[in-house]
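User: I'm new to structure prediction. If I give you an amino acid sequence, what do you actually give back? Let's try with this one:
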Amino acid sequence: MKLKYLVIILALIVFVIGCGTQESNISQETGIQGSQETNEEVSGNSDIVLLKNNGFMPDVLEVTRGTEVTWENMNETSRIFGIENEEIKSDELEKGEMYSFVFLEQGDFAIRDLVGHEMTVSVE
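Assistant: Good question. You get back a string of structure tokens that encode the predicted 3D arrangement of the chain. For your 124 residues, that looks like this:
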């Protein structure tokens, strides 16, 4: 009976460690921002940007480091956008689909879609 509880506890520990490692890898995969392993504080906030027929809403967004920005496509047509001068771009988003990105690096980032709409994310 004690062996059964020991196995369950070990399985839970492995699961928790695995989830923590996955979260760390996701943060590192964002590329331009660096890693949260710098021990510097980040905000953990989030903001939503809507992709509409006439562009991004809002078209200027000011956030603090560590903010997760989520773009949601509100168009009937699919949209793709990316961060200018970086190798980061969204997948093709159908109506209602979302793409999120955590900004860990300070600076001004130009976001453009394939239609020609632009927005700026300023990270303090």
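You can read the tokens as a compact description of the fold. Here is one thing that stands out. Residues 1-30 form one domain.
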